[in-house]
Specification:
The chain has 253 residues and is mainly alpha-helical. It has a single domain, classed as Up-down Bundle (Ferritin), CATH 1.20.1260.140. Helix content is 76%, strand content 0%. The chain is built from eleven helices and no strands. The radius of gyration is 18 Å and the shape is globular.
């Protein structure tokens, strides 16, 4: 397990605390994406709601997670494409390599989600080929191609589109946990891939709680990628005046 992986897992656990999660989330809660990312995000989310409904469900989450891995794969492939052209520009090469590192970590994390969710959906006998295999695959194929070319020509919009999708996923998981807390806390969730990945959960509530936190981390990290590249600068939060506070440190994590 890499240092980055350990740091992610530790942060995900800390975000189970509602107060800390609120502080971590609020810095980017009201980030305004550009018109292109807003339109593409609306198209993606609306299409998913049309097929799977607006309410969160196991089947909908499986489809979401199949698609959620795609932008990170696209970024990584696009970054290597750009490295082929800018390998002599050392500063640009370092930026692209950092993006690739984040993309790889996020891909592995989203893979955990989709594999465990697939096991749960199969166990509940909710698997349907058209809605849960073919449609997500077609969504993912379109999304991969669109994000790949978008990243090459307009990186800001590519990252903002991911913000829209991850923000939607975060709120869907939060709603699912709130609606089904009692049931989820009595359902055991123990699969080999969880151990392989290094995530320790016992119940489905703990699993979905960790997934909700993962999506929030991905959402915030995506926008910090934009900040790091100098696309914009978020206003300083009052809590950041106290660097010793847990909430302030989490907000900058």
């Amino acid at each position: 397990m890499s240092d980055e992986h350990r740091a992610h897992e530790e942060l995900s656990k800390q975000l189970n605390d509602p107060k800390l999660r609120h502080e971590y989330a609020k810095r980017y809660d009201h980030y305004q994406v550009g018109w292109l990312a807003r339109f593409l995000g609306w198209l993606l989310v609306s299409s998913g709601d049309l097929v799977y409904g607006t309410k969160p469900s196991y089947a909908k989450f499986k489809a979401i997670e199949v698609v959620a891995r795609v932008p990170y794969q696209s970024w990584e492939v696009a970054a290597y494409t750009l490295l082929s052209a800018f390998y002599r520009n050392e500063k640009r090469a370092i930026e692209l390599a950092k993006t690739s590192a984040f993309s790889r970590l996020a891909q592995d994390n989203e893979t955990l989600h989709v594999i465990v969710l697939s096991q749960i959906v199969c166990k509940l006998k909710q698997q349907r080929f058209f809605r849960h295999t073919l449609v997500p695959f077609l969504f993912a194929l379109f999304y991969f191609i669109a994000v790949y070319f978008l990243y090459l020509v307009y990186r800001k919009a590519a990252l903002e589109l991911n913000y829209v999708f991850e923000n939607h996923a975060y709120h869907q998981y939060a709603e699912f946990l709130e609606r089904n807390e009692a049931v989820l806390k009595h359902r055991i969730c123990m699969y080999e891939f969880l151990s392989f990945y290094g995530r320790k959960v016992v119940t489905e509530y703990e699993f979905f709680e960790s997934v909700r936190n993962d999506e929030l981390i991905h959402r915030n990290t995506t926008i910090r990628e934009l900040e790091a590249r100098g696309y914009f600068c978020m206003p300083k939060m009052p809590e950041e005046d106290n660097p010793q506070g847990d909430a302030a440190n989490l907000a900058r994590s």
